[in-house]
């Protein structure tokens, strides 16, 4: 069906709202200065909520609509990912106010940059063309580079931003080179056209080489091994609220783009890319399981934890089936809630002298702040995949998808990696409940952090078991829209 310009724009209202709203807030901030930072933050959250409402009630929720000559697709998959991304970004802004004020970083640019990054992510999850794919990634990445170095007076933060920028440029080169090869061997940049050519030819060597380069570039965006080298330094060096944002929304956007690009563009060469994804998943799970053991900084530990969790999500993607994509969406939804809650607790690790990041600072927390220890324990159990916490269900579905696709060995490796990674999660639990107490943290964490921490813990254990059924149904519908 050919859409008029007016009809096309009705499907792009969320992105238009984010773009126009970000520009308006930027202009307002320029005129009012940093004293408007709080107002801009609240307006940014309202803007993200408004965009989420537009997505939910978009007419594309009940149909698959192709926009701009096949450059973007509005479907249930994009809707699912966008709502989660907008929600994670809104929480990242809300959780940051007290931290930024305490570190004297209360500048109005921060929420605007998050909104612009979310705009790029929104384009990413709907992209169905190599050009629009790259446009979405770069729109996201340019804002993230600045956010990583947002604390310009900190050497660690500026170093994190520089590393992220240099390695991000390298990953973009790999992605562009791969996209150029795919275009050269297929003669088209649309996902549908690439799939048609890939299915109609037996000589796919050049196409597969281009695909491998694209996978390498996309793996960097989700910090999957062996393209993870930027993650620990950026997580540690960036301001903690920025790290919380990095660990949630961009990971979901990257994984959604990964799933759409592979399942829509290259279903005819599944046997060629499936082993590559499986190997990346194994490498990510191994790096996450072993490298985190030696960490003493909680943010670096969460960096390696995120690498491992991306490996588990890729296990589901490696299946290459509707069930596999559905399991990825379920896993990422649970992962985002776990991550937001965990970083809310990390942001509560404040003493009179400022923020603390050492794992040893959590020692004896049960005796100095029992509610905080309880929340962190629940979230760590879920991250480790201990039943009946929600993290267990996430791993269960991705491993089940791998088994049903005949990748039993990959599921076994995942179970082993999960058992190893449980050591460093449970070690923190031991510190909190059985070690001698460290100096107490400040009690006044603020309502936003308290709500985020308690809400995440309640959703993880055991309340989410009530909602796991609807989550499975919604993720199944979203995944089916890709096939």
Automatic annotation (TrEMBL):
<feature type="transmembrane region" description="Helical">
    <location>
        <begin position="328"/>
        <end position="349"/>
    </location>
</feature>
<keyword id="KW-1133">Transmembrane helix</keyword>
<keyword id="KW-0813">Transport</keyword>
<keyword id="KW-0830">Ubiquinone</keyword>
<feature type="transmembrane region" description="Helical">
    <location>
        <begin position="162"/>
        <end position="186"/>
    </location>
</feature>
<comment type="function">
    <text>NDH-1 shuttles electrons from NADH, via FMN and iron-sulfur (Fe-S) centers, to quinones in the respiratory chain. The immediate electron acceptor for the enzyme in this species is believed to be ubiquinone. Couples the redox reaction to proton translocation (for every two electrons transferred, four hydrogen ions are translocated across the cytoplasmic membrane), and thus conserves the redox energy in a proton gradient.</text>
</comment>
<comment type="subunit">
    <text>NDH-1 is composed of 14 different subunits. Subunits NuoA, H, J, K, L, M, N constitute the membrane sector of the complex.</text>
</comment>
<feature type="transmembrane region" description="Helical">
    <location>
        <begin position="108"/>
        <end position="125"/>
    </location>
</feature>
<keyword id="KW-0560">Oxidoreductase</keyword>
<dbReference type="InterPro" id="IPR001750">
    <property type="entry name" value="ND/Mrp_TM"/>
</dbReference>
<feature type="transmembrane region" description="Helical">
    <location>
        <begin position="447"/>
        <end position="472"/>
    </location>
</feature>
<feature type="transmembrane region" description="Helical">
    <location>
        <begin position="206"/>
        <end position="230"/>
    </location>
</feature>
<feature type="transmembrane region" description="Helical">
    <location>
        <begin position="273"/>
        <end position="294"/>
    </location>
</feature>
<keyword id="KW-1278">Translocase</keyword>
<dbReference type="GO" id="GO:0008137">
    <property type="term" value="F:NADH dehydrogenase (ubiquinone) activity"/>
</dbReference>
<dbReference type="GO" id="GO:0042773">
    <property type="term" value="P:ATP synthesis coupled electron transport"/>
</dbReference>
<feature type="transmembrane region" description="Helical">
    <location>
        <begin position="131"/>
        <end position="150"/>
    </location>
</feature>
<keyword id="KW-0812">Transmembrane</keyword>
<feature type="transmembrane region" description="Helical">
    <location>
        <begin position="77"/>
        <end position="96"/>
    </location>
</feature>
<feature type="transmembrane region" description="Helical">
    <location>
        <begin position="301"/>
        <end position="322"/>
    </location>
</feature>
<dbReference type="InterPro" id="IPR010096">
    <property type="entry name" value="NADH-Q_OxRdtase_suN/2"/>
</dbReference>
<keyword id="KW-1003">Cell membrane</keyword>
<dbReference type="GO" id="GO:0012505">
    <property type="term" value="C:endomembrane system"/>
</dbReference>
<feature type="transmembrane region" description="Helical">
    <location>
        <begin position="396"/>
        <end position="426"/>
    </location>
</feature>
<protein>
    <recommendedName>
        <fullName>NADH-quinone oxidoreductase subunit N</fullName>
        <ecNumber>7.1.1.-</ecNumber>
    </recommendedName>
</protein>
<keyword id="KW-0874">Quinone</keyword>
<dbReference type="GO" id="GO:0050136">
    <property type="term" value="F:NADH dehydrogenase (quinone) (non-electrogenic) activity"/>
</dbReference>
<dbReference type="GO" id="GO:0048038">
    <property type="term" value="F:quinone binding"/>
</dbReference>
<keyword id="KW-0472">Membrane</keyword>
<dbReference type="Pfam" id="PF00361">
    <property type="entry name" value="Proton_antipo_M"/>
</dbReference>
<dbReference type="GO" id="GO:0005886">
    <property type="term" value="C:plasma membrane"/>
</dbReference>
<feature type="transmembrane region" description="Helical">
    <location>
        <begin position="12"/>
        <end position="31"/>
    </location>
</feature>
<feature type="transmembrane region" description="Helical">
    <location>
        <begin position="242"/>
        <end position="261"/>
    </location>
</feature>
<feature type="domain" description="NADH:quinone oxidoreductase/Mrp antiporter transmembrane">
    <location>
        <begin position="127"/>
        <end position="421"/>
    </location>
</feature>
<feature type="transmembrane region" description="Helical">
    <location>
        <begin position="38"/>
        <end position="57"/>
    </location>
</feature>
<feature type="transmembrane region" description="Helical">
    <location>
        <begin position="370"/>
        <end position="390"/>
    </location>
</feature>
<comment type="similarity">
    <text>Belongs to the complex I subunit 2 family.</text>
</comment>
<keyword id="KW-0520">NAD</keyword>
